[in-house]
Amino acid sequence: MNVRDTEHMIAELGKHQSYETTQNMEDADLIVINTCSVREKPVAKLFSELGNYNKKKKDGAKIGVTGCTASHLGGDIIKRAPYVDFVVGARNISKISQAVEKKGTVEIDINNDETTYEFADFRQSSYRCSVNISLGCDKSCTFCIVPATRGDEISIPTEIIIKEIEKSVKNGAKEVFLLGQNVNNYGKNFSDKRDKSTFTKLLQDISKIDGLERIRFTSPHPLHMDDEFLQEFASNPKICKQIHVPLQAGNDKVLKEMRRGYTKKWFLNRCEKIRNMVPNVRISTDIIVAFPGETDEEFRDTIDVVEKVKFESIFNFKYSPRPHTPAENMPNQIEDKVATKRLQEVIDLHKSHQDEHMEKYLGTTMKVMFEDLKPNGEIFGFSDNYCQVFVTGSEELLGKIVDVKITKANRTSLKGEVVS
Ligand code: SAH
Description:
The protein has 13 helices and 17 strands. With 420 residues, it is of the alpha/beta class.
C-alpha cells in the first residue's frame, strides 16, 4: 500500500505542481519520505534519515514526511526535526500538493475519506497496475498499529476500481494487484451507504475486463476465507494461484490474545482446502514470534502449523511493541534472546520447505509474464503462482506471457528456457 501511496503522490505532485522524480538526491527541490510504522525499526530510522537528508539537500529544498509514522507522530515530527516542512498521514495523500505549498502543514485525519478521490495517474510498472480497493482496517489485532494510522475500513466503490483498471489496461497493463488491509472483507462499508457487496463479487466483475489477464491481491484475512471465496479463487482462470494467508501465531490462546478471530483448526482447514482445490498454489504467510506471554510450549503450535502447511514463503517478525495498541501494555513481554531463537527456528524450518517446493518445479512448464531486463542479458518475470523466473532473452519478451521450461531451481528463484 505504501508503494501505491507513493505512486499517487508522484502523480499528484506532477499534475498539480509539475514536480518530476530524480535519481539524484542533491538535485531534488522536494524530498518526501513515505513511512511505515508497523514495527519500531522504521520509525527510529526516519529521524536518522531526516538528519542525513537535511545535511545533504540542495539549498532551499523542502522536506516532507508522509505515511503511517506521519499519522501517528503528527506535529511532533516537526518539533523534533524543525527543518521538516510538512507532515501528511497515510489517509491524507490527496492533500499532498497543498501541503507542499504551506510550511508547517500537518494533515493527519485518520478518517479522512479518500475513497472517491480520483488520483492523478502514475505507475512504475508498465505491465502491472496496483489498485486500492479499500482504505483502513476494521480489525482490532492487539499488536497492530494500522487501525490507528489508516483509520476505519471503508471500501472504494466498484465502478471506480473498474474504471481505474480499464484505464491501466488501455495503457498496457496485463495484471492488476488489488490492495487493502483486509481485501476479502471488501464491500462491508461504502461512504455513500450503498448496499453491501463482497470480494468474490468484485473479483467476478474485474475478471470481465477485456485485455486484463491476471488478478492478484493482498492481503486477505484467514477469517474471511469462506467457501464461496475459495471456490472463486480456485475456478477463476484470471486469478493467479498465489495466496497470502497471514497466520501470526499457531496457538489458540495466543491467537485469542492477538484478537485474530480464528483458531489453529480453522487456519489449517483453510490451507488444506486451498491445497486440495488448487494444484500448484503457492501459500505465503506472516508470522510474529514472541507475542507477550507466548510460552515455549505455545510457540510449538506455530512450528506445528509451519510443518503442516509448508508455506512457500514466510514473512517472519519478532513482536515489536507499538504505541496505541493493547499488547504494548500486556504483562510478560518476551526477552529478545528468546524471540531471536524462535525466529531462527522458523527460518531454518522454512528453508527446507522452500528447497523442497522449488525443486519440484524442475522440468515443468510455467506461464511467465516478463517485466524487466537485467544488464547481464537476463530477463525476468513472475509465474502465475508468483515464482521469480529468469531466462536469457531480449526485450521482445517484455510484457508478454509465455511458456517457460524450468531448468534450474534455487531457494528463491528459477531459471528456464522459453518454449517456442
Ligand atoms: N492487514 C495486514 C497487516 C499489515 S502489517 C494483514 O493482515 O496482512 C503486515 C504484517 O506485519 C502483519 O501481518 C504482522 O505479521 C506484522 N506486524 C504487525 N504489527 C506487528 C508488531 N507489532 N510486531 C511485529 N510484527 C507486526
